[in-house]
Amino acid sequence: MIEAFLNYLTFEKRFSNKSVESYKIDLLQFFYFIKNEFENDDLLIVKHNQVRAFVVHLVNAGNKPSSIKRKISALKSFYKYAQKTGNIQYNPADKINTPKIPERLPKFVEQQKINHLLETPEMYFSKENTYDNMQEKLLIDVLYSTGMRRQELINLQWSSIDFSNQQVKITGKGNKQRLVPIGSQLINSLQIFKQIQQDEYKNIPKASYVFLTKEGNQLYPNYVYRIVKMHISHCSTVDKKSPHVLRHSFATHMSNNGAKLNDIKELLGHASLASTQVYTHNTIEQLKEIYKNTHPKA
């Protein structure tokens, strides 16, 4: 039954491989729990109290609320699918309450610091290989200029960049595609980089991705993380220095500069506006400016 559900997520719901794998891990964890605790090896005869016992177990084991919420969501989706296919009559996870997750403002790099990093790269890029330097700078520039996710960047191909219309087609979660405009300066940099890349790999086969390893293959996630962390460290003291921080920075800066929430939602590829609302916060600098301009005692 689990295999059929995972196939449903993959081929009908078009979930990413990473999401499907997470569902599989969560469901198997629940399966082994009910097998050990209740001697039940059939997920289709599970009772409400067994799901509740699993949640209590997760809490007692010190799992984070976000992790518990994801596992409950996986169970609800699995049993909803089992109902849909006629394997069960009621969903044993349906009335399980999910833990409240404290709201956290997204971490971001200040706009002037990112501008400084991208406008004066020679201060931070010290490799002798000009091609490597340019790839690292462009990697950061594309992440910040488009708000794309790390995996979206890794999967980006030259055929997805429309140079004449200055836009890029991004394939996101669930293979959903969106068009994001990019500025003329970045377009020019990408055109130059494409020519240099062709020379760099003229003697070896290369993949069609925009960013490549030295061997001409698709980048791997840890490479992108390492590059972003290293260069953000040069310009900011923000706690987190992951590629996702550049996505947060993209959305935060657009919001602070007057972009509408729904437009940011479309650019980020969010399925729900609720995911985008976290970017409505203001930076302390903006709050100071508002206070200065509006408060009588300022």
Structural notes for this entry:
The chain contains 13 helices and three strands. By secondary structure, it is mainly α. The chain folds into two domains: 2-84, Tyrosine recombinase, N-terminal domain (DNA polymerase, domain 1); 111-290, hpI Integrase, Chain A, CATH 1.10.443.10. A three-stranded antiparallel β-sheet has the order 1-2-3, with no helix packed on it. Strand 2 and strand 3 form a beta hairpin. Helix 1 runs antiparallel to helix 2 (17-38) and helix 6 crosses helix 10 (243-256).
Topology:
Elements: H1 2-12, H2 17-38, H3 48-60, H4 65-84, H5 111-119, H6 130-146, H7 150-154, E1 161-162, E2 167-171, E3 177-181, H8 184-200, H9 221-235, H10 243-256, H11 261-268, H12 273-276, H13 284-294
Antiparallel strand pairs: 1-2, 2-3
Helix pairs in contact: 1-2, 2-4, 5-9, 6-8, 6-10
List keywords for this structure.
13 helices; mainly alpha; 56% helix; 4% strand; globular; single chain; 2 domains; hpI Integrase, Chain A; DNA polymerase, domain 1; 298 residues; three-stranded antiparallel sheet
